[in-house]
Specification:
Helix content is 60%, strand content 10%. It contains 18 helices and 8 strands.
Length: 404
């Protein structure tokens, strides 16, 4: 998610810097030359380093390059701290942009709060910058509300389209996702930087249809998404999700396990027969899978007395790693002991089923971790949520099986 947010912010930053350069250049003013230089140096520095980071493959080299970018941005702020005209809204807006690039969101927000409170020719740009701060601070609802208030005033172009795209991919309001998706797909002059994104949008539409129980609509959406996928890996991922539609509305496949944590083979039928339950496919080595633990524990605490069961399902991999480190090649018994320790350390109190060969993964057509399947009281698969980016989808489908 972070990488996609960065793409959005970098795109919007470039456009707003250009707008500032143009608008500032049109007005003779004291200190205008320094403001123009500040904006131009910032834009050049940002572009050079972003291209360099994107071209690097080694994570360590990427980190070093990102650190060097931050160092130079800090030096840029210091350089112009005394050169810029006092009270210049243009200068303050560029300063806020630099702070956003540095990840100093609170400092940027302080400046933007002042700029958005005053009526000036930079108010609109300041509000868009604040949308970015809110997005990067995981305050998506606030970002959405602010963007909706300024959207009608924005000229159609890359900045507007990239913001639509962000809320299509990460917004929690299904109606807004639908509206922005329709607008995005109707664009005939899509900038080069945003071409190739239709597959992602059709996938989101398919997922929304799936959440609504419209399996026919979901199938149609996935078909379009596969056809428009940007590359082979995206196509493969979307096709795997489409294949899972075969399970929807059908009796959940039996879960084969060789070992159990927090349950036994005898207890399992009692935990699921006639009760709604979640089957969560994940593994300790998967960061996105681990990130679901607090959410799952909260759901279990809130719904266990209402009949809900949660089942973690994993497999043996022949090696073991988790948030504490990598144990390397691991024998079966040792890996099971490490899984047990992992569950105890993370206070995972619901059952964990362990398959030596991973047969459950095949039965449920799982190719991406984590994958959460929702099974209703009749034992029918009602929905699936792949990945951890959209926790609201988990709540949407949880409500569906709990209210039946």
């Amino acid at each position: 998610m972070i990488g996609n947010r960065l793409k959005f912010i970098n795109c919007s930053t470039a456009l707003l810097v250009i707008l500032l350069l143009l608008s500032v250049a049109c007005r003779p003013n004291n200190g205008i030359r320094e403001v123009n230089r500040f904006a131009a140096e910032f834009d050049s520095l940002r572009r050079v380093h972003n291209r360099k980071i994107s071209a690097l493959k080694d994570p360590a080299e990427q980190t070093r390059s990102a650190d060097e970018k931050k160092r130079q941005l800090e030096l840029l702020l210091q350089k112009y701290s005394t050169l810029l005209p006092t009270g210049s809204s243009a200068a303050q807006l560029i300063r806020a942009r630099v702070l956003i690039e540095l990840g100093r969101f609170a400092d940027a927000d302080t400046i933007l709060d002042h700029l958005t409170a005053s009526e000036s020719e930079y108010t609109l740009e300041a509000k868009m910058a604040r949308v970015q701060v809110l997005i990067y601070s995981d305050r998506v609802k606030e970002a959405s509300d602010l963007f909706r208030s300024i959207e009608p005033q924005y000229k159609r172009g890359e900045e507007l389209y990239s913001t639509w795209l962000y809320f299509i991919l990460y917004g929690e309001d299904s109606l807004l996702r639908k509206q922005y998706a329709e607008k995005f797909l109707e664009v005939t002059d899509m900038p080069l930087g945003l071409t190739g994104r239709k597959g992602e949008i059709y996938r989101i539409q398919a997922l929304d249809a799936l959440d609504a129980g419209d399996f026919v609509g979901a199938a149609a959406g996935f078909k379009l998404a596969v056809a428009e996928a940007a590359d082979g890996s995206e196509k493969k991922m979307i096709q795997a999700e489409a294949d899972q539609l075969e399970l929807m509305g059908k009796t959940a496949p039996l879960l084969h396990a060789d070992d159990y944590i927090n349950a036994t083979a005898v207890q399992l039928p009692e935990l699921i027969n006639g009760r709604p339950y979640l089957v969560v496919f994940r593994a300790p080595w998967s960061g996105p899978g681990r990130s679901l633990t607090p959410l799952l524990l909260s759901i279990f605490q809130d719904y266990k007395d209402k009949g809900l069961t949660i089942i973690d399902y994993t497999r043996l991999y022949g090696n073991f790693s988790d948030e504490t480190g990598d144990s390397g090649p691991t024998a079966k018994k040792a890996e099971i002991r490490l899984l047990d320790a992992y569950c105890r350390r993370n206070k995972i109190v619901f059952p964990t089923l362990i398959s030596h060969e991973g047969t459950g993964f095949d039965a449920y057509k799982v190719s991406t971790l984590p994958a959460v399947f929702f099974v209703d009281k009749r034992g029918k698969v009602a929905a699936v949520v792949n990945g951890s980016r959209h926790p609201y989808r988990i709540y949407t489908n949880l409500k569906k099986i709990m209210e039946e």
